[in-house]
Amino acid sequence: MFLGVLLGALINLNGSGHYIHWGFIQMSVANFVVIVLMIVVFVLAILLPFPKRKRGGQ
Amino acid sequence: MSIETGTPAEAPAPTSTPEESRQWTARVRHAAESAFPPHQLLPDRQPAYMASWIYVFGVLTVVSLAWVIITGCILAIMGPSWWHVSSAGHLVNSLHLWSVEAFFFFMVIHLWGKFFMAAWRGNRRLTWATGVISFLASVGAAFTGYLSQQNFDSQWISTQAKDGINSTGAGAVWNVLNFGQMLMWHIVLLPIGVAAIAGLHVLLVRRHGIVPPFDESDADPAPATASAIAADEPA
């Protein structure tokens, strides 16, 4: 039981969906969050330095 | 086709005789070796500018696609009475969903990165085009996946989608209310199409090399002759 709760969703997803209304545009909060996350990851992928391997353990 | 005799140690040199050059097998082999030389197909050196996080999203997309296919095969073997009822079925069903989510997540970031690099430069137009077609085919595969869930969600989506499809005229031959047709598109036609086009896309990336940054585009070297930095050296 405890494990089920622990591994369950951090947010209760069993309710009705939430939507953002902007003029004629309607989008679910879930889709909006995914788009924001993609933009954040895209920006981080450009800005963060790529790790460099050290030579042969020297 | 001629059959050579003798031990492998006596095998002829790879040069073709006039007789061999007329054989379709030899011609196909030579064309394949010319288009995709082994050192280019599986390179061990890449240009220094590849050392950037933005270059990892293509392979993340391929890995996600592999998970989509693996979990989809398990679902196909076990069937809906398994994936709707058992705990293991729920797990694999969820893995199928979330690997698709990851696939589109990584693919869109890959698309943004390549768009802002103008990745069609350097005779890479076909590479870009196959990526676009693969993306569109993936959207179709995802939509037919929604219709194949066999629950109230798929019924709702199909009844909503039919009006949109019918307005285009395609509803005469592509009926989203026809579960059998949508399932076959989802598990046969579209996966074959996505895998084939994505495979061609990867082969074209190998052939033409990864797209260089704008300040390196004048040289625009092929991967085999680039001022390459060995993969195990710091960039």
Q: In words, what does this structure look like?
A:
The complex is a heterodimer of chains A (58) and B (235). Chain A is of the alpha+beta class and 58 residues long. Chain A has a domain at 17-41. Chain A is 43% helix and 14% strand. Chain A contains 2 helices and 2 strands, in the order αββα. Chain A has helices at residues 2-7, 29-47; strands at 19-22, 25-28. Chain A has a two-stranded antiparallel ribbon. In chain A, β1 (19-22) and β2 form a beta hairpin. The longest helix of chain A is centred in the middle third of the chain and has 19 residues, at 29-47. Chain A starts with a helix and ends in an 11-residue tail after the last helix. The mean pLDDT of chain A is 82. Among the domains of chain B are: 51-108; 118-210. With 235 residues, chain B is mostly helical. The N and C termini of chain B lie far apart (49 Å). In chain B, strands 1-2 form a two-stranded antiparallel ribbon. Helix content of chain B is 62%, strand content 2%. Chain B has helices at 18-21, 24-35, 38-41, 57-78, 80-83, 87-116, 125-147, 152-168, 179-208; strands spanning 45-46, 229-230. At the A-B interface, α2 of A face α6 of B.
